[in-house]
């Protein structure tokens, strides 16, 4: 078991290093192949008004003339130890973890990411609870009553849920529930949890439901398929032969086994989501990481884009690490292999 | 009335292709401390019979009729909840493949403890002690340590022992073993059969062994019931079935049984053809398309279902051939071939 944990940890760290290399490569190396010079990179830091000499000087000071490997090393060092930026006008210290400065605002990237984290996290956690509870219970009931009216209705709804994009369901729900009926607040409403938990939940209610609907559909279908499989297994017959109540047979024996693939999917989905629910945040104008990413891309704000990509990727890696560890806890057969 | 009395049991499954007559009018009885072997090919209805007794035949789709009397209680008319309370306690089952029959995510001990605590209101510690005790009794070494092992960490034989421990956890009076040794190594089969015989004596339970392997029933059974296409074709004392069988299907089963005392160059006597579909059971005697003696019945084989009638020795046979002719065939044609083989 311990070696399994250690192996997964090493794997996760290796994955993060690869991701950092790829991100660095995409944002710093590929543009140079495409014709960017150290000067054109540097000019983004100093603005259009600067003279060629200034640009060249800044390019030198920011190290854009150094070999790629040195630049990558400096990039990593910034993340772990912080970095010193010398713009010529003075040395600025960027504390670790340093992902550089925004081209537009001149602010360091990291604190901005942290600021937006609670929004995305709130959105993801609420939606996740809703979709797991709804998706799994609908899936179980559908499987147990296969072919019934409930099964057909819920699977039809699930098909719609999988097919309808969030910018459609989100817009429709805003129009109907917020602007039409006035039950929910308009888009862009956000209150911090620490400020007013009730208002926090009320503001997020519609985004939660919309986002959960999309995922619940997938989970319901997956749970249904998994339950149909496991309820036909020999060990279910054994559980019944022991005289176990049908409810316990379903939950403790059937669902327990059917949940394993759902756990895997959940880890990846949740990891992706806390890296930024771009469509949901854009539809409801929520100031989270997804919206941050969209703005950064629109502004071609390289350090911000790179920061958010790296940030989001680490969530996926961490989430799948947690899932791997949970997997070993859930399925004892994994511990041996 | 016997401890277990099954009367005219029918279990039919309606499907899109037609009615599947898995069990079609089965009658037998069994006393405590006795063993009944139910023998037949795959699809003869023997497993459905056992599941039917436990009330585990699939869901609400199955049509079940007849009577099952267990210790003066009738199970067919009983509510599902009442049958559930008896299941695992009064009657228990051992399944064929212990790996797929045990939950892969729970330790062996957990599964035995669960079985015990369904029917006994005791603490986990007490149930755990009981589980360790049971594992020791079925011959698992170091039971206090193995109780926390998972099924995949056991060998096939050990798993079947654990399965038996689970079935015995509530001292069942009726134990049904469905192909208990089929998934095991030959060397382990004998150990498991010995274990079952010893435990049956110790618990004085009624035991039903369901198998296609006559060697297994020869080891254990007092009585043998031969099933074909959902019906009993021959039923009687084990000695009668082995030494004085009168049904051509039983002869076929005996002839296709591998034996160590045979010359390795000689071939087995297989039954030609394959078992019928239980949707389209052949009219008349279900065995007649495969029966080498079908033409000796003056055409009745394909038109009339033969009755289950007693032989001179008192066991029951379902065959159109006259008694004397069957005896003569066995003595003059079948027995010599089986013996010289």
UniProtKB/TrEMBL annotation, chain A:
Belongs to the binding-protein-dependent transport system permease family. This is ABC transporter permease. Keywords: Cell membrane, Membrane, Transmembrane, Transmembrane helix, Transport. The chain crosses the membrane at residues 12-34, 119-144, 156-180, 200-222, 257-279, 308-330. Residues 117-327 form the ABC transmembrane type-1 domain. The keyword Cell wall biogenesis/degradation does not apply. The keyword Acyltransferase does not apply. It is found in: Cell membrane. Pfam families: BPD_transp_1 (PF00528), BPD_transp_1_N (PF19300). Its main location: membrane. It is a multi-pass membrane protein.
UniProtKB/TrEMBL annotation, chain B:
Keywords: ATP-binding, Cell membrane, Membrane, Nucleotide-binding, Transport. It is a peripheral membrane protein. Residues 4-254 form the ABC transporter domain. It is found in: Cell membrane. It comes from the Bacteria. Its main location: membrane. It comes from Nonomuraea ferruginea. This is ABC transporter ATP-binding protein. Belongs to the ABC transporter superfamily. The keyword Cell membrane applies. GO terms for molecular function: ATP binding. SMART domains: AAA.
